[in-house]
Design brief:
Shape: elongated
Strand content: under 5%
Radius of gyration: 21 Å
Number of strands: 0
């Protein structure tokens, strides 16, 4: 099985959309009453949180990648001015 890189933004987006589905499922089954406008802040807030998480994870991934490449650049004997 091929491994893939972990993407926490997609995890958060999926969890928020699943939670929104659970809220509507509970409303449809009569377990509780959810207002019709509850979905907009849940989805919008969750997608914004997922975007911020994805940007942060990407920045961390890029900085780690650059940190691994930095020692390799100095191995050929050349020094930086």
């Amino acid at each position: 099985m091929l491994r893939h890189e972990f993407q926490p933004g997609r995890l958060i987006a999926g969890a928020v959309l699943a939670a929104t589905g659970v809220v509507y499922l509970g409303d449809a089954s009569g377990a509780w009453k959810a207002p019709w406008f509850a979905v907009a802040p849940m989805v919008a807030g969750g997608l914004c949180l997922a975007a911020l998480t994805g940007l942060l994870a990407g920045a961390i991934r890029r900085s780690r990648r650059q940190a691994r490449r930095a020692p390799e650049a100095g191995r050929d004997g050349a020094t930086a001015p």
